[in-house]
Sequence to fold (253 residues):
Amino acid sequence: MKNDIFSFSRFGRYFAGELASICSGKGLSILAFGLMPVYIFILDLLFSSFGDGYEYMYAISRNTFFVFSFWIFAIWIPSACYGNITDKRAGAVYTLIPVSSLEKTLSMIISTLIVIPLAFCIIWTGTDFLITMAVGSPVKDTVLVYAFSESFTPLDLDFSDMLVSAANAILLFLLGAVFFRKHKIAKTILVWMGIGIVLVLLGMTVLETMTDNWQSAASLENVDISTLNIVWSCTIAAILGIAIFLRIKTIQY
Fold:
């Protein structure tokens, strides 16, 4: 058979069908996450009823809510959409789908890493924009405008660093969703913490070694930390992507 590994037409049909399935099964939950500004607005109204007059929540506070809700969404969405493939019945059907493991992996990664988070962000920022306009606040107070005019997080982090870190987190929880059969999110968090502890200890050891070597320590001043972080994060993303592919390819029931 030709194109056993990858076919654009076959991948396109499969990807479209998978997105339709996700919209049918999880679309309402994704919408509920995206409508978070409505819940914030209602709570804001309730709390403001104890004072004199009403003023919509500041953009910096809503921006913080957006960041936290996005991270919760990013942790939840992989297991919500693909956690069932480790189930014997649903997983057996998944393995019989006539597409390659590479196509399944790419579809999975594109959906959870780009399409679904983008849909969430559009719904969230769109809803926030409509509410901000409805209460008479200026456009500059919308989360969408504020995010690109001020620091995106309370910590002064580079946007590209945060974006790559979020992508890695989604890939990590996607790997946990297809690897663990039960308690996927909890086990992934525990593994993440364990790896983090090991990396911190290794980093401290390397730093201590370099401190003893003043020439090596001085060379660190010429290193672009932001570029180094992006290279490191992209390497981790590639490793996670390969691990997801191997899991999909070798999964057994």
The radius of gyration is 22 Å. The CA atoms of residues 125 and 144 lie 6 Å apart. DSSP finds ten helices and no strands in the chain. The longest helix spans residues 101-134.
